[in-house]
Amino acid sequence: MLLARKLSPSKLKPLFYLSLLPECRNLAHSNLSSVLVAHSKFQIQNCPKFLPQPTISLIRFFSSQPGDSALKQNLPISREGNYDEGTSPSVVCPGCGVYMQDSNPKHPGYFIKPSEKDLNYKLFNNLEPVAEEPEFSNSVKRGIVIEPEKLNDDDANLIKKPEKPVVCARCHSLRHYGKVKDPTVENLLPDFDFDYTVGRKLASTSGTRSVVLMVVDAVDFDGSFPRKVAKLLSKTIEDHSAAWKQGKSGNVPRVVLVVTKIDLLPSSLSPTTLEYWIRQRAREGGINKITSLHMVSSLRDWGLKNLVDDIVALAGPRGNVWAVGAQNAGKSTLINSIGKYVGGNITHLTEAPVPGTTLGILRVEGVLPRQAKLFDTPGLLHPHQITTRLTREEQKLVNMGKELKPRTYRVKVGHSIHIAGLMRLDIEETSLDTIYVTVWASPYLPLHMGKIENAPKIFQDHFGCQLQPPIGEKRVQELGNWVRREFHVSGNSWGSSSVDIAASGLGWFAIGLKGDAVLSAWTYEGVDVILRNSLLPYRSHTFEVAGFTVSKIVSQSDRVLNKSHQRSDKKAKGVDSKAPLSSDLDSSMLTSN
Questions:
Q1: 396-453: per-residue pLDDT in tens?
Q2: What's the whole-model pTM score?
Q3: Could you tell me which InterPro entries the record lists for this protein (predicted)?
Q4: Which of 92, 133, 260, 567 could covalently link to 330 via disulfide, CB atoms 3.0 to 4.6 Å apart?
Q5: Are 395 and 471 in contact (CB under 8 A)?
């Protein structure tokens, strides 16, 4: 006997949707695909178990990107971003510029579109029903006060908040957690070819006007200064100027040097002195002609008005503005600050205190007027910076995030000074009894002064432990061998520093002397160490003592631990644990011989 069974239309829906699944591959851009995405997710999850479960990539539940995921998998990973007008912004992460994909979470650019919520989600969720308020209860019963009804779809769309842009998983992790979730993905990123993507546009003698924002870090000027870009620009300017003088088309790029993070320099530093020093270092770095120079602070909005006015004037109605600089020089932060200052409706670029935040070229809309365009480019990798060799945790210790404070030593011949386990300065010869050495670096880096003859023992016993970074003895071996650089220095004043010995990405030793000296700088092989005129001629009014000068973060944790131990001991002996301790009167920096 056969039994007839009625199937309701709602039970037939899953079968209908499944019959259309094979067509979704070829209809990724069609209205039918969008309809399926909007309505089929719940139904398919409730299909009978005997039916084959469709793969997610067929309907693309979590993707708003046009095109098929299978096709995107075959595309090479690119860092050219969306500088081209033909590239749709929807396929590029608005936070870092990498091409987005939703097929492989282990590859760069992976993203998940937030799930759709009911249109009435969180609508009036913070409001109590009027009927429950005693002063309105009678009025409601009489019909005088009308309760707000649940909005339909059309009404809810009228008050719907603007949708937040979808960013890649890497940007999401950097924005919310300040770190990269999967560091192994970083190794899959190809190097950014500046010469191919941007250099060829600047080298063109025709086309739109080009303005280059060369962004440099004030506290790591020589380490973050893009020397290759400077030489390329100098050659381009020279060639185009010669062509223009001969009556040919010569689109000469305008170079705007932007020095960021000046709020980290001591406020007593004269702007005139700083500008002279910057121009001198820029010429030695390879850039001969600078259209304008701006010293800014994105954090405090210093200098943004003059910078914006200058950019708008130089770019004109159709110009292209390219922001270039080393990793973590502050380009994205600067552009975000400019967008906030001008009140433009721009997508917030990803910022993080780690190098290499921007991965591809980003066309930033809403900042420049008319048809002028602003582009943020990926940070240039400078292998000579010591930060490129450090882990994320080590970079946090090296990063200079607050106004620099001097730490000064009065050093005799035959002594050395360590900056953590990253650099050492030896005073080998001098015509004087002593010289002044001031350390300008992150306050979280411990220092040590001792005899040169004890330096090998310090390296063996304390690197990776008391002298961090590197963090851990294993990291000491991973960073490689130390190499020596010899410097002959001279000065004519005891009251101020004359020269600096700077390590890229770390900081510098400022040398104050009235006479001559022979110094040696030790650091890891490949790290750039230079001799330059002193940036900050000041020194501390109090001198550091021999031995270990514990970093600020370590001294604070040590004091807390010591207080806890002392209170525990006194409590065990029956002494009031709330009595003041001698350690409460300790200074903020601990030292030990």
A1: 999 998 999 999 999 999 999 999 999 999 999 999 889 999 999 999 999 999 999 9
A2: 0.65
A3: GTP-bd, Mito_lipid_metab_GTPase, NOA1/YqeH-like_C, P-loop_NTPase
A4: 260
A5: no
Secondary structure (DSSP) of 79-116 = --TT-STTS-GGGB-TTT-PBPBSS-TTSTTB--PPPP
State the virtual CA torsion across 486, 492, 495, 498 in degrees, nearest 10: -40
Q: Give, in order, the Cα–Cα distances in Å from 438 to each of 152, 200, 339, 398, 421.
A: 69, 44, 38, 17, 17
Q: Which of 447, 523, 434 is nearest to 479 (CA)?
A: 523
- Other C-beta atoms closer than 10 Å to the C-beta of 474 total 9
Lowest mean pLDDT among 60-64, 145-149, 206-210: 60-64
For residue 519, what is the DSSP state? E
Predicted confidence (pLDDT) at residue 115 exceeds the cutoff of 70 = no
Q: What one-character-per-residue DSSP string does 408-433 give?
A: EEEEETTEEEEETTTEEEEEEEESSS
The DSSP 8-state label assigned to residue 493 in this structure reads: -
Q: Measure the CA–CA gap between 371 and 408, rounded to whole angstroms.
A: 52
Q: Is 483 helix (H, G, I), strand (E, B) or coil?
A: strand
Residue pair 452/414 in contact (Cβ under 8 Å)? The answer is: yes
Gap between the terminal Cα atoms of the chain: 99
**Domain boundaries for CATH 3.40.50.300 within the chain:** 203-382
